[in-house]
Amino acid sequence: MSTTIAAPCQPAAVPIDPAETVILQARDSVFGDQVFLCTRGRRHLLLSASRLEELGFRWPDDLEQTSERILRSFRPGGPVPSPAPAWPPADSMAMREWLAADLAGTGLEIGAGASPFPVPLHCRVLYGDRLSYEQLTAEPYPGQRICDLVVPEVLTEFDEIRGVADESLDFLIACHVIEHTRNPIGSIAAAWRVLRPGGRLLLVIPDKEKTFDRERPVTTIAHLLEDFHAPDRQRDLDHYREFYRLALPVPEAALEETAQRNFAEEYAIHYHVWTHESFAAMLAALPAAAGDWQSIWTHPGVGDGSNEFYARLVKAG
Ligand SMILES: C[S@@+](CC[C@H](N)C(=O)[O-])C[C@H]1O[C@@H](n2cnc3c(N)ncnc32)[C@H](O)[C@@H]1O
Question: Which of 2, 82, 219, 275 is the most exposed place for a label (fewest CB within 10 A)?
Answer without folding.
Answer: 2
